[in-house]
Structure to design on (284 residues):
C-alpha cells in the first residue's frame, strides 16, 4: 500500500534528451534520502518518504546493502548509509590527486603553525571535507573527514565561491537555495567581493565560539577555485604563533597545492598578463 506522502521527483535536464530509467532513479532516490538522514531509517520509513510500496523498497535496500552502500544497525531494525559513496568520490582521479598533493603540505602547515587544517570542496549546497590533519598540540579544533557543512556556514565554501567564475558561483548558490529552501543572504555579494579583494577568508566560526576560520583557495590552471584550505585557528594561552603567521603560512601552502594542480605561479601569471596587450598591439 502506498502512503499519501509526495515522492521526491528528479527534474529532468532542460534541453537534453531524457530516457526514464525507473529502477536507477529509485535507487538514486534512496541514496539521496539516506544522505540527508544520518540517523538511518526503517524500510517502512523509506517507503513512506518516497511514496513506494514496502516490497519494492525492501528489494532495493537489499541490493544496496549487498553492494555495500547501505548497512543495517546492530539490532537489524534500521538501515544507514555507509562510506562507500565517499570512498568512490575520493577515488575520482582529480579528487584523489588533489588529496595526494595536499596531504604533505597540510602536514607542514599543522607542524609549522601548531594548528589543525582541512581541505574542503563544494558538493551541491554543502562543503565536504576531503582531508584533515590534526595539530601536533594536545588541544585544538578538528573537523572530521567526510563531514558536510552548510555552504553559507563555511569559510571554506565562501572562499571557493569568491574565486570561481560568476556562472559557477551562481550555480552553487542556486543549488544551496534549492536544497535548503532558504533565500540568498542579502550581504553575500558584498562579502564575497571583500574576500576577492583580500585574497582569502578570515572570520569567526559560524558555529563554534572562539574559533577563527582562515581559508585560502586552491586554484586550477584557469585560476578558478576547486577547493579551500582552512585553518580553524584556536588561540592558546601560551601560543607564540598568531593570526598573521597563520595567514602567511596558509598563503604559501595554498600556492604550493594550487601549482601542483596546474595553477600558474604568480610570476608566470603576471608575465602572461603583461605580455598579452603587447602581443595584441603587435598584431595590429
Amino acid at each position: 500500500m502506498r502512503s499519501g506522502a509526495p515522492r521526491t521527483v528528479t527534474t529532468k535536464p532542460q534541453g537534453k534528451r531524457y530516457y526514464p530509467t525507473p529502477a536507477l532513479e529509485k535507487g538514486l532516490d534512496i541514496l539521496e534520502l539516506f544522505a540527508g538522514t544520518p540517523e538511518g531509517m526503517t524500510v517502512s520509513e523509506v517507503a513512506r518518504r518516497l511514496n513506494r510500496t514496502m516490497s519494492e523498497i525492501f528489494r532495493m535496500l537489499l541490493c544496496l546493502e549487498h553492494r555495500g552502500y547501505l548497512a543495517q544497525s546492530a539490532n537489524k531494525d534500521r538501515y544507514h548509509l555507509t562510506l562507500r559513496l565517499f570512498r568512490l568520490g575520493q577515488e575520482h582521479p582529480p579528487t584523489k590527486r588533489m588529496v595526494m598533493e595536499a596531504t604533505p603540505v597540510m602536514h607542514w602547515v599543522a607542524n609549522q603553525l601548531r594548528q589543525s587544517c582541512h581541505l574542503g570542496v563544494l558538493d551541491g549546497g554543502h562543503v565536504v571535507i576531503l582531508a584533515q590533519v590534526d595539530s601536533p598540540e594536545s588541544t585544538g579544533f578538528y573537523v572530521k573527514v567526510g563531514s558536510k557543512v552548510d555552504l553559507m556556514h563555511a569559510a571554506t565554501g565562501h572562499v571557493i565561491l569568491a574565486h570561481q567564475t560568476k556562472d559557477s558561483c551562481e550555480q552553487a548558490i542556486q543549488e544551496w537555495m534549492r536544497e535548503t529552501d532558504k533565500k540568498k543572504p542579502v550581504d553575500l555579494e558584498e562579502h564575497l567581493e571583500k574576500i576577492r579583494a583580500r585574497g582569502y577568508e578570515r572570520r569567526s566560526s559560524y558555529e563554534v565560539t572562539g574559533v577563527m576560520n582562515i581559508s585560502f583557495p586552491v586554484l586550477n590552471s584557469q585560476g578558478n577555485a576547486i577547493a579551500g584550505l582552512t585553518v580553524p585557528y584556536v588561540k592558546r594561552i601560551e601560543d607564540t604563533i598568531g593570526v598573521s603567521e597563520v595567514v602567511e603560512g596558509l598563503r604559501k601552502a595554498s600556492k604550493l597545492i594550487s601549482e601542483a594542480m596546474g595553477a600558474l605561479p604568480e610570476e608566470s601569471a603576471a608575465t602572461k598578463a603583461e605580455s598579452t596587450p603587447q602581443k595584441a598591439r603587435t598584431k595590429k
